What does this fold into?
Amino acid sequence: MTERRPAAPDPAETDLDPADWPALRAQGHRMLDDMLDHLQGIREQPVWRPMSEEVRAAFRREVPTRPSELAEVHREFLQHVLPYAVDNVHPGFMGWVHGGGTVVGMLAEMLAGGLNANCGGRDHAPIEVERQIVAWTRRLFGFPEEATGLFVTGTSMANVVALLVARRAALGAAVREAGLAASGKRLTAYTSAAAHGCLPRAMDYAGLGSDALRRVPVDGRHRIDLDALRRAVAADRAAGATPFLVIGTAGTVDIGAIDDLAALADLAAAERLWFHVDGAFGALGVLTSEIAPRLSGIERAQSLALDFHKWAQVPYDAGFVLVRDGALHRDTFATSAEYLRREARGLAGGTFWPNDFGPDLSRGFRALKTWFTLRVYGTEQLGAMIAQTCRVARHLAARVAAEPRLELLAPAPLNIVCFRYRGADADALNAAIVADVQESGVAAPSTTRIDGALAIRAAIFNHRTRERDVDALVDAVLRHGDRRVGANSPA
Ligand SMILES: *Cc1c(COP(=O)(O)O)cnc(C)c1O
It folds into this structure.
């Protein structure tokens, strides 16, 4: 028999559920509608607008000791948060590497919030949803059945997890209790000069030190130079170090270069190195036949880090790590604690407890928004959308190439275009143009440096971005560039 709560709650008791469910329901529907209106009309909004001091002041209040109406707090959200978000949902957002999100992902987030599942472990359906994503990811990347996977915040954390598994493989189980010093070994790792900055940080967190990550030069296409890599490994061995890991990049953050992953897999096998791939955004290029062949060799990685929140448009955050040797993955993190005992029956059952595969114990239900995204769109539509972002980038690159006042600074093999306005003191000029364009609300590119030169970087990740949006970017760059150059030229 199930026990029922008393119909009229004891006034001495308190819980956080609404006193008036119908009113809450109406308010909830309004909040949902407001957000859908915002997303439907996003093109009419500026990409970004600076916050006034008054807006900032709204977030410097005292700790709220008294309750407020939900409707009132929501009004404040509409007034002070929504208009001033970094609008990566906007088609004019082209800065950094940000996914655009989807309405489907948002609705799934709401459902996950309602369930409030703790996905650290135990035997409940949300864990099965995560296992389903692990199985699909394995299949997408040609990994074997023993491979294991885990949702984490982002690729920064996925790289840390993979690095710790590689460290465990290099030093054996003892490293977990005795630490690095007991091994007496000096581990060294290798990646390209174009690799992401989270990799040296991961080396730091793993106790290996960021200096132990050798940054190998790149070729003309920004891919790791394999001969230079071989020489670096040999030099370290000759100096008494223990090379243990090589990290390939599938889609560099600057320009979208993909290392020769098949050649890296061969080299790693010959040199007995762990082969990890940072595929933060580029790995999901497997969803389109236009990119998949260029990722050949990714299926031979021992571990792979990727983000569903970039090209796949799953709302933040949804990082993921896949490890070929699942037993080793588990051996890197699993411990036994009485309060986390596994049972043959009941809620404490189940063999896949995600907390055995990474540092987090309590974990949210990131798998649900990913599951909804993959189910609702299917890999074919997601692949077509990814191919479209590359098409829009090619249009941008062609416009830049055709415009004498602009120059391309790097090849654009995927969806990222690096260019600049020509002129004297070009670094300062282009930094100013980027800020002008961002403040105009028309588009939001970011900057990077290519061979020392400051570049305007337009990364087309948003599924909503069309050719007319990159045309608007080019027009704005020319307008602000002309104005600035004109203002500086002698009258
Ligand atoms: C974005 C990115 C990262 C970092 O991923 P986060 O999800 O931001 O932690 C790492 N490597 C590459 C190549 C990236 O593009």
About this structure: The longest strand covers residues 242-249. The pocket of pyridoxal-5'-phosphate is lined by residues 97, 154-156, 196, 198, 249, 251, 253, 278, 280-281, 307, 319 (CB under 6 Å). The domain at 118-364 is CATH 3.40.640.10 (Aspartate Aminotransferase; domain 2).
